[in-house]
């Protein structure tokens, strides 16, 4: 087997999942991660469709289900906190009975623990430079260390450094969807118990939720915005941008913004997608958000990462480590699936952030009346069917069964 050593940049979801499958297929994966350890916390995510099959094949489905958020309801409130509409949490999130919703950090920990003893992790370091040589890819790390690997995979997210080193400036590859998102941990001052409360304002949506087993809560903000230049590592600047965007919004927003000042896990970014003509160059390829980020608005980023990792590792095994046919096969199989899930984002955003007071009034009243409208069950089923159609829009080979 060729190219048995593989360096993976990024220890989020896609990176450790890829490392898991590569190790299962006889490769020797190494994961490098800028953070000092596995990133805990984060926000709640959904695993659907083909991604559930991947979790099954990893033996992690039961553990993921045990870590479910167990959310009960989604409530929409006005500026004074008065309830406008209440919905079942699964209906609110477009889930059916098979979907698993859990915290991103919990899934990351499950996958990391599943690779214990079989995968080398280099925490607190990152790739500084890549050089293609006859013997493989010579990698220089920020720490100053230099090693050579048969292949390198970028699993380092929307602003992938691996992609930038391989394909140049990120601008041509990132498609801004006209919105930004921010998330952070906040005290559960509303006493929420597996409930999500949302306040929509024109061009801005703020929400807070608390999941099963957590004493704190998560605050999330979405707002319309042009492409805004900012340093992705300057959280103080990001917090100022968020405060400016939500200036004048009532409900609990001022209290939530105050808590953002000291939040240890503050996250801020554009709601964007990655679109590339090819995901590979030479011995380097990309997986997950680095290659085909669908944006948080799709609700499918984690599922794409899990499926992409499974397919990439499987195709490398099927080709006995020959990266040229393997990378091509990976892209042929994954690209239609990625594009189907990216297509969900635009329509989802229309319901997540509403542009005018009139739109908010109409949509929230429709949600309130939904249980009483004839044919509403079929209307809801069509919405859920669209999400699950995309989530299952791939035929997953059983690479182990084919001898890979």
UniProtKB/TrEMBL annotation:
InterPro entries with a match to the protein in the record: FAD-bd, FAD/NAD-bd_sf, FAD_aromatic-hydroxylase
One protein family per Pfam: FAD_binding_3
GO molecular function: FAD binding
Domain FAD-binding residues, every copy: 4-340
Protein's UniProt name: 2-polyprenyl-6-methoxyphenol hydroxylase-like FAD-dependent oxidoreductase
